Amino acid sequence: MSLEEPWLQNYIRRSGRLFLDIGANEGQWTKSLATGYERVIAFEADPRACDKLMQNLPKNAHVICKGAWNANGELHAFHRFLSTRQGSFFREETDEQTGPRQGDIQVETVTIDSLDLPDVDFIKIDTEGSEYNILQGAIQTIKCSRPRMLIEIHNRENGELVSQFLGQLGFPVVVIHHPNYTVNSDEWSKHFWISC
């Protein structure tokens, strides 16, 4: 997910109290939106990306080098990287965005709810397939703060689970399709964004 994707611009909350950047990668969103927020917390499970994320970090930003998940602990995950800018830990299937499986890795995980974060105004999630699991670990935070959210989806099943989950919490769900995908293409139903 990129701030340069013009079709997403109207769905980004650019200011507020607390912004959670989940799947922060090297920090494009963290660093770009920090000026509009009192605090930013960036979550990144890839140690190489986390190192880059912490470089030139704004003073109001904090990095958690763990994977947001539905439980605190460790997760045996699949390590895939084309670069630190793309990749996936959790998805079994291979595609042009994740690349082939490169090996296994132990990822330390944390739930958003375990951090007891008040006043969350915006959550961005771009984690290549673990979005539903992350939301399960953030249910109390979401119920209490009712933040605006922008979530990148990379497969149909996960998109359905995320939409149902958010709908059950009373969020109006907006599906945003990439303008270059056609309705009949595989990408249309597998790669899109959810805003609420």
Topology (elements, then pairings):
Elements: E1 16-22, H1 28-33, E2 37-43, H2 47-53, E3 61-64, E4 67-68, E5 73-78, E6 80-83, E7 86-88, E8 104-110, E9 120-125, H3 131-136, H4 139-145, E10 148-153, H5 156-168, E11 174-177, H6 186-190, E12 192-195
Parallel strand pairs: 1-2, 1-9, 2-3, 4-8, 9-10
Antiparallel strand pairs: 5-8, 6-7, 10-12, 11-12
In a nutshell, what does this entry contain?
With 196 residues, the chain is α/β, with parallel strands linked by helices. It is built from six helices and twelve strands.
Order of helices and strands, N to C? Answer: EHEHEEEEEEEHHEHEHE
Tell me the total number of β-strands.
12
CATH architecture: 3-Layer(aba) Sandwich
Q: How many helices?
A: 6
The named CATH superfamily: Vaccinia Virus protein VP39
CA-based gyration radius? 16 Å
How many independent structural domains? 1
SS-based class: alpha/beta
Oligomer: single chain
Largest sheet descriptor:
7 strands, mixed
Head-to-tail CA distance between termini: 16 Å
The coarse silhouette is globular
Q: Which sequence of strands runs across the widest sheet?
A: 3-2-1-9-10-12-11
Task: Give the low-confidence spans.
Answer: none
Molecular structure report:
This protein is α/β, with parallel strands linked by helices. The chain has a single domain, classed as Rossmann fold (3-Layer(aba) Sandwich). It is 22% helix and 31% strand. It contains six helices and twelve strands. The mean pLDDT is 88.
